Amino acid sequence: MWHLLPREVESLWTLFTAPVIWALHFLFCYVGAAIFCEKPDFLGLDFNNLRIAIGVLTVAALILIVVSATLAWRQWNFGTDDPPHDDPSRKDRLLFQGYATLLLSGLSFVAVTFSALPALFITECIR
């Protein structure tokens, strides 16, 4: 799997990848549940189908976040250089970006997990 990932990712967009995945996951889960609870016969599906869809979406989001964290870990040189990375050099900038992306990926992983937990415990819409 390591050979499939690029060697260096030098874009600032990688820093925002995991939080954007979490935000989209949150949006789809809660908007989907709100639409389903307001109009349960909209698609002709029951609540368990919505729970399964949220589960599949959660697994996909977590996989994408792990890929983002793996890229960040590689950019940070596999954790061999300890922070702070505060020298005004290209190397330290890339190390800082990798470290920050790794931390944001971890936070986003936890956030996606907590966003999906209501789908496990809520069995139906309350009207």
How would you portray this structure in words?
- This protein is mainly alpha-helical.
- It has three helices and no strands.
- Helix 1 runs antiparallel to helix 2 (about 45-75), helix 1 (about 15-40) runs parallel beside helix 3 and helix 2 (about 45-75) runs antiparallel to helix 3 (about 90-120).
- The longest helix is centred in the C-terminal third of the chain and has 32 residues, at about 90-120.
- About 25% of the residues are buried.
- The mean pLDDT is about 80.
Concise account of the structure shown:
With 127 residues, the chain is mainly α.
The helix-strand sequence is HHH
| Strand segment count | 0
- The CA-CA distance between the termini, in Å, is 47 Å
* Average residue-wise pLDDT: 82
Uncertain residue segments: none
Largest sheet, strands/sense/barrel: none
Strand content: under 5%
Percentage of residues in helical conformation: 55-70%
